[in-house]
Amino acid sequence: MTTTLLTNIGELTTNVERDGDPCGTLHDAAVLIEGDRIGWVGSGAEADDVVARLARSDTGTPVVDAGGRAVIPGFVDSHTHLVFGGDRADEFEARMTGTPYAAGGIRRTVAATRAATDDELRARLAGFVTELHRQGTTTFEIKTGYGLTVADEERLARLAAEVTAEVTFLGAHVVPVEYAERRDAYVDLVCDEMLRACAPHSRWVDVFCERGAFTAAESRRILAAGVAHGLEPRVHGNQLGHGEGVSLAVAMGAASVDHCTYLDDDDVTALAGSDTVATLLPGVEFSTRQPYPDARRLIDAGVTVALASDCNPGSSFTSSMPLMVALAVREMGMTPSEAVWAATAGGARALRRDDVGALAPGMHADLVLLDAPTRVHLAYRPGVPLVRTVWAGGVQV
Predict the structure, then answer these.
(1) Residue 394 pLDDT more than 80?
(2) Which residues are annotated as a binding site for Fe(3+)?
(3) How far is Cα 153 from Cα 2, in angstroms, rounded to an integer?
(4) Given this model, what pLDDT does residue 56 score?
(5) Strand, helix or coil for residue 395
(6) Of 103, 149, 203, 343, which has the most beta carbons under 10 Å away?
(7) Which residues contribute to the annotated binding site for N-formimidoyl-L-glutamate?
(8) 0.85 cut: is pTM over it?
(9) Which residue ranges make up the annotated binding site?
(10) How far is Cα 311 from Cα 250, in angstroms, rounded to an integer?
(11) CB 276, CB 257: distance < 8 Å
(12) Between 204 and 55, the higher pLDDT residue
């Protein structure tokens, strides 16, 4: 078993709550990686005993001196759309001059994705995965939704499953052009043949419950069909205006409802009384100039909040979780510690994972060494590449 000992960590974010601190912060800390798991976490003084024990066992364990820098868990990005073809930079440019965002632009990416080969999509996806790792993301979800035919949705799910276990079937992204006058027929297709083709590659089922996409009744039917195929539900909701996305997600026991830009008091109360995570996607508001979600309101109400990138070519073409942290602090009322927790442990909750998002014995050895003394610097120094070293499953990447 390969082992690595990180010592002289100035600030360690464990996300194991202690003394009222959800981040479970340790100073002058050390971490032992054993294989793909965390073997031990403790103080620098205790690390001397670990070094001595390792020396006696003659394992040849390398020791990494963090030099007083901060270490955090790897980011958990619980909402991405990374398998697609084409580009929509012109839409972004138009929005910056006043054109409002609309869900219909998804159909442009659908056309480009259908035209791309498997090898082209696979190569682009590999580039995005490298990009994620370089920015400290070690666990990530990928949605389908840019194929919208049985064959294309199946291949997107299959390609996504090559790089992550967290694959979401999103055949209900929008109604494709060829079904514009036959919405019911498309919903039938999603609930039957398309689900049967995609379920073997997927863990989750999602639906865009929003004006311009799918109604609450259609969304409920699609989610129920996904559950019947053994998938767990998620929801895109309340992005473009007030709607039924949040109430549907809570009623269906969804792991998360994502966007949550427009919420009323009933939505907040429902989320606070449920296990459904509110996943906020500040990159979308940055790119579309919509109002940012009110994270402060949600946290103060007792709602579990996650941050994710929503990396996609239309409304948030960024994979940077450090940017999400900075935007959440600057624009959404979160403290730096709350934002880092939401981008790590919160993302794990949104994926219903208890093996990532924290640093404790038995957890996946997913760590990020920052070129900074504290996690606060992720918001304090926005745009600066502070990720120095990343370990994913105990392997430096």
Answers:
(1) yes
(2) 79, 81, 236, 310
(3) 39
(4) 64
(5) strand
(6) 343
(7) 146, 312, 314
(8) yes
(9) 79, 81, 88, 146, 173, 236, 239, 310, 312, 314-315
(10) 24
(11) yes
(12) 204
